[in-house]
Amino acid sequence: MRQISNEDDSYKQELARLDTMLLAERIIDRYPNDTSTNNSIEIEHPEYEEKLNRIRHFYHTELARFDKNSNDFCTHVLTLLHEQSNIRPITPEEISHMISIVRKKLCLIQIQLKQNTCEAVMNLRTRFLDARRKRRNFDKTTQKILNEYFYSHLSNPYPSEQVKEELARKCGVTISQVNNWFGNKRGRYKKNMLKNE
Questions:
Q1: Domain residue ranges of the chain, discontinuous segments joined by +
Q2: Residues 6+ away with beta carbon under 8 Å from 150
Q3: What is the residue-level pLDDT of the chain in tens, covering all 197 positions?
Q4: How many CB atoms lie within 10 A of CB 52?
Q5: 140-196 to CATH, choices 3.40.50.2300, 1.10.10.60, 3.10.20.30, 1.10.340.30
Q6: pTM higher than 0.85 for the full model?
């Protein structure tokens, strides 16, 4: 009986984890009757929002169908058990245990539905939002500042972390962008040097 209780806890934890993800991705609402939360979200990509709405609609449709079918199935199992109790003795504890087993199996289906929905949202996010990050060149001022540093330190074009922070602040870019720029610049410079030899 202890193992069943642990299973219940792990199912509840998994459902709570998935619900948190679905809430973060706006598939479910914390307060379903409050429409103001949805309207306050900025829609940057209408096509993304449209596809997200389709996933949301599919999830809610399937969840409603699942809830109805689960209740119907549990009612059917109860009816069968009561009918069987006319033929052989079945205690209320046995009935309760059987319903508990059925509900656990149904819980696994619910977990699968939520996992599939989370995966669909993550795939959409990866495919659509991450793919939209466009490569862009730095403006002239930023290029000038970085090139000046590079050519004035040509013997050792590897700025320290402190210098990278300062350059990033001057240029209004991230340290990661400065790192990438220097890595690319060193590569292009070496390639050009080899070509010219």
A1: 2-132, 140-196
A2: 157, 182, 185, 189
A3: 444 556 678 888 888 888 888 888 888 886 555 444 443 334 467 788 888 899 999 999 999 999 999 999 999 999 999 899 889 999 999 999 999 999 999 999 999 999 999 999 988 888 776 655 666 788 899 999 999 999 999 999 899 999 999 999 999 888 889 999 999 999 999 999 888 87
A4: 20
A5: 1.10.10.60
A6: no
